[in-house]
């Protein structure tokens, strides 16, 4: 009997959906479930996650090579959560476990090619007889260099280098060598300290005959305590002096880990805020669960500006007091700085930030601080829900309704659901907050799955802004063709004249949203995707799905007419229009095209918050979460852009967008005003949004959902079938739908819709069809999908509880 460990291989391949057995060498017997290890896998060394141990006959099994960390990465709860993700979202366990590793892997693998050592030159030449010179050239290059990577070889050779190499590998003339290095590269700095007492040092200095450099060193250490490399340079002390003083036992060198942190020092001066009565009542309902280590989930429905963040701070303080840890999730990386500033102001260095735009080094440093107990609060976007914490006391989910909490590529998890699972296992609390809770969460709160908490008023007594709906059909009838209605123009003028600030929202980026031939009606569209191209100010037509760009044609590719015109307004054109209408206003635009880099969004928001600009315009990211007192006017250019999407959540998203955007106005002493431009002023989502009337919206939406058997009354599972050819996608989607129909026939509470052509029928040259399955419970559906092995197919993607059905 030998101890055997079962390892999931960290490779993003759907089909490697099982654990592999390995043996532990004597020196690594301490390894258990939860460790990350390096294992041999085929010809490679790869990262693996130990999921369980077993004992049995180990004949023929390989040994693991090493442990990748000094501690297990996964504790029991994290392992359980990963298993749950793999079951619920139908992905492999390795894919689910990868989510917990910053950068998805702790290793960087590189590949080099080298000549097979057993072959002589003559044998190689004989094997390549009749092949082009390219093959021999590759071998000669490798013979001269020992081994080389693909980019290196690529520089030397002409023609299809990869094809040549693959041929040589197949013929066993060249072998591939994989090597791996650890991604976690802690950075250390050396500090010097006195090894003798200060009194001894002073005594030494009194003795004459010291070199001047040693004198400077001792004097500086006496006054400063420690010296870093940079200090030595300033003091003109050479390495030689340092070495001799070390050898002489006068000083010692100490290594200190340097921490990379681009969010350091955001704390600001702030007077303590006393919770108002409503906030206190809310807190009193949450506290018992925190104090008694109970799993409970709360939905905090508080209007915009009601002081939800203040409640989060108190809950986290109570969790930290219990020496447990907390995760605070925000919907967008762009919004982290503001909340980090508020948390740092309260908790100083106890806060770390984790999100995917940070460098791997920075993320590893943050995790190191968490694991060593130097910090206990994690703030970040959805992936922060996977932070390795050993005693998770609370997860706060700010703006709970945001779709960004759902990952749209595999594994298609929802951070809220993962948070609920982790907290349940850890006996922690989940606090979800929003002014516009998702219909599903609110429904669950009404039915007591979550505890519903309400903050119905703004925290500092301010009132909600007045909202005016502008019917754009009426504008046109009055002969006004500008995208900026008269009412909005007046609002902006008045605000700027008073020195107040304005936010304008338009949900489409680019300059012109489509380009059409007036002669034949042909719309320029992407050659890879079934979507129209967007004209950008850079002078290119761009596809927002596959990122290809082309030069706009002078003549129509269909009818050769020169009558090509640019239609639709994106944020770039709106910026030009605003500049024309308000020539003296200082303006800044924020959308995906302006916000490169990890702090791009933040810088724009900060500059605006500091009053450097009068108008902030941009896509929906301008409307979220921030608290800028001087903003008194908000304009929404087209409230209909989302409403017209073919998605059952279109109304919910429209209501949330209007309410959230309007909620940015009038958060200070001066009350706010909002103008919403629409072609559908009578639509219930827009009408209730303009009144900030969540309850009214919810009631109407809920009865619609019920009559159509949509969530929360059903669960949806979405299948997307893809194929490089149109006929093929129709055939395979029809086959799948037929198989599902018979597999689920016995369940009369299940409805299969489709297959139908996806609203975006083609992306990156792959044709797409959808099948939607509606069911009361999705467990039977998930079971059938996995029995049919659909989760293993490369041409099928499964989205459990999708947030959009496009
Ligand atoms: N008890 C209080 N007394 C006075 N001011 C408060 C109190 N609580 C919060 N505030 C202030 O009210 C403003 C709004 O609070 P906060 O940003 O927490 O609201 P919110 O509910 O998170 O809003 P939103 O959902 O719109 O993001 C902040 O400037 C905050 O400092
Ligand atoms: Zn495209």
Give me the secondary-structure topology.
Elements: E1 2-9, E2 20-23, E3 36-41, E4 44-56, E5 66-67, H1 76-88, H2 93-98, E6 107-115, H3 121-127, H4 133-145, E7 147-148, H5 150-156, H6 161-170, E8 174-182, E9 187-194, H7 198-206, H8 212-224, E10 226-227, H9 229-234, H10 239-247, E11 251-258, H11 277-291, E12 296-302, H12 308-321, E13 325-329, H13 336-347, E14 351-353, H14 360-371, E15 377-380, E16 392-398, H15 415-426, E17 429-434, H16 439-446, E18 451-455, E19 466-471, H17 472-477, H18 486-497, E20 501-505, E21 514-517, E22 534-535, E23 541-542, E24 549-550, E25 564-567, H19 571-581, E26 587-590, H20 600-609, E27 615-618, E28 631-636, H21 640-643, H22 650-662, E29 673-678, H23 684-690, H24 694-707, E30 715-723, H25 726-743, E31 750-763, E32 766-775, H26 779-787, E33 796-800
Parallel strand pairs: 12-17, 12-18, 13-15, 13-16, 14-15, 16-17, 19-29, 20-27, 20-28, 26-27, 28-29
Antiparallel strand pairs: 1-2, 1-4, 3-4, 3-5, 6-7, 6-8, 9-10, 9-11, 21-25, 22-23, 23-24, 30-32, 30-33, 31-32
Helix pairs in contact: 1-15, 7-8, 11-12, 22-23, 23-24
By CATH, the architecture of the largest domain is named 3-Layer(aba) Sandwich
Strand-residue proportion: 15-25%
Kindly report the name of the CATH homologous superfamily of the largest domain: P-loop containing nucleotide triphosphate hydrolases
CATH class of the largest domain: Alpha Beta
Stretches where pLDDT is under 50 for at least 5 consecutive residues are none
Average pLDDT across residues? 88
By DSSP (H or I, 4+ residues per run), the number of helices equals 26
Total domain modules:
6
**Strand-pairing-aware structural class:** alpha/beta
Largest sheet: 7 strands, parallel
Read across the widest sheet, the strand sequence of neighbours is 14-15-13-16-17-12-18
Name the hetero compounds present.
Answer: adenosine-5'-triphosphate, zinc ion
Based on CA atoms alone, the radius of gyration comes out at 31 Å
Enter the CATH topology name of the largest domain: Rossmann fold
Question: How many β-strand stretches?
Answer: 33
Basic shape:
globular
Provide the helix percentage: 25-40%
CA-CA gap between termini: 54 Å
């Amino acid at each position: 009997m030998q101890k055997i460990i079962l390892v999931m291989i960290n490779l993003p391949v759907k089909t490697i959906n099982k654990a592999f057995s390995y043996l532990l060498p004597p020196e690594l017997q301490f390894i258990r479930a939860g460790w990350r290890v390096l294992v041999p896998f085929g010809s490679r060394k790869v990262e693996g996650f130990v999921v369980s141990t077993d004992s049995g006959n180990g004949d023929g099994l390989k040994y693991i090579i090493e442990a990748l960390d000094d501690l297990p990465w996964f504790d029991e709860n994290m392992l359980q959560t990963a298993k749950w993700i793999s079951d619920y979202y139908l992905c492999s366990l390795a894919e689910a476990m990868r989510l917990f590793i910053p950068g998805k892997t702790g290793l960087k693998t590189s590949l080099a090619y080298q000549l097979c050592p057993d072959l002589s030159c003559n044998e190689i030449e004989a094997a390549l007889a009749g092949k082009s010179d390219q093959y021999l050239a590759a071998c000669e290059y490798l013979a001269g260099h020992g081994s080389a990577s693909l980019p290196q070889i690529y520089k030397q050779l002409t023609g299809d280098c990869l094809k040549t190499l693959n041929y040589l590998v197949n013929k066993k003339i060249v072998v591939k060598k994989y090597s791996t290095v650890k991604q976690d590269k802690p950075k250390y700095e050396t500090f010097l300290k006195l090894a003798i007492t200060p009194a001894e040092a002073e005594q030494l200095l009194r003795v004459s005959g010291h070199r001047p450099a040693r004198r400077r060193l001792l004097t500086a250490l006496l006054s400063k305590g420690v010296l870093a490399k940079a200090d030595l340079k300033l003091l003109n002390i050479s390495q030689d002096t340092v070495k001799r003083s070390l050898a002489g036992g006068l000083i010692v060198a100490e290594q200190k880990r340097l921490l990379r942190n681009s969010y350091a020092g955001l704390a600001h001066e702030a007077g303590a805020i006393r919770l108002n009565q409503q906030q206190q009542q809310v807190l009193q309902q949450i506290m018992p669960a925190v104090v008694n280590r109970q799993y409970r989930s709360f939905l905090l429905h508080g209007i915009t500006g009601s002081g939800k963040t203040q409640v989060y701070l108190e809950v986290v303080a109570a969790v930290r007091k219990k020496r447990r840890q907390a995760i605070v999730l925000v919907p967008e990386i762009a919004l982290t700085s503001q909340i980090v500033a508020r948390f740092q102001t309260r908790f100083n260095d106890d806060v770390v930030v984790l999100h995917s735009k940070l460098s791997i080094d920075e993320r590893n440093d943050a995790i190191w601080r968490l694991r060593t107990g130097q910090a206990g609060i994690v703030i970040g976007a959805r992936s922060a829900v996977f932070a390795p914490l050993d005693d998770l006391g609370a997860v706060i989910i700010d703006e709970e309704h945001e779709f960004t909490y759902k990952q749209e590529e595999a594994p298609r998890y929802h951070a809220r659901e993962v948070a609920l699972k982790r907290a349940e296992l850890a006996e922690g609390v989940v606090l979800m907050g929003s002014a516009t809770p998702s219909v599903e969460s609110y429904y669950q709160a009404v039915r007591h799955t979550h505890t519903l908490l309400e903050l119905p008023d703004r925290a500092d007594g301010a009132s909600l802004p007045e909202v005016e709906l502008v019917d754009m059909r009426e504008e046109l009838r009055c002969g006004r063709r500008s995208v900026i209605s008269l009412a909005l123009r007046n609002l902006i003028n008045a605000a700027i004249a008073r020195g107040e600030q304005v936010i304008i929202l338009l949900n489409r980026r680019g300059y012109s949203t489509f380009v059409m031939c007036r002669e034949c009606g042909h719309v320029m569209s992407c050659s890879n995707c079934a979507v129209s191209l967007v004209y950008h100010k850079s002078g290119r037509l761009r596809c927002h799905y596959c990122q290809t760009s082309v030069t706009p044609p002078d003549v129509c590719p269909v009818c050769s007419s020169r009558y090509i015109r640019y239609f639709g307004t994106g944020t770039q054109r709106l910026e030009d229009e605003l500049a024309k209408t308000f020539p003296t206003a200082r303006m800044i635009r924020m959308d995906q095209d302006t916000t490169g880099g990890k702090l791009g969004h933040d810088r724009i928001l900060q500059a605006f918050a500091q009053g450097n600009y009068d108008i902030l315009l941009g896509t929906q990211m301008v409307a979220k979460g921030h608290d800028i007192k001087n903003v008194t006017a908000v304009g929404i250019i087209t409230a209909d852009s989302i409403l017209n999407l073919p998605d059952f959540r279109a109304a919910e998203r429209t209501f949330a967008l209007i309410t959230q955007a309007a909620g940015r106005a009038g958060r200070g002493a001066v009350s706010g005003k909002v103008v919403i431009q629409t072609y559908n002023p009578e639509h219930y989502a827009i009408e209730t949004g303009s009144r900030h009337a969540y309850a009214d919206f919810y009631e109407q939406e809920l009865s619609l959902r019920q009559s159509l058997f949509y969530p929360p009354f059903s669960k949806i599972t979405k299948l997307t079938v893809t194929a490089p050819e149109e006929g093929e996608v129709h055939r395979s989607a029809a086959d799948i739908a037929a198989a599902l129909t018979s597999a689920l026939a016995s369940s009369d509470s299940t409805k299969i819709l489709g297959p139908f052509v996806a609203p975006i029928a083609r992306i990156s040259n792959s044709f797409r069809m959808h099948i939607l399955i509606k069911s009361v419970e999705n467990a039977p559906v998930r079971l059938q999908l996995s029995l049919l092995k659909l989760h293993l197919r490369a041409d099928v993607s499964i989205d459990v509880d999708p947030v959009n059905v496009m």
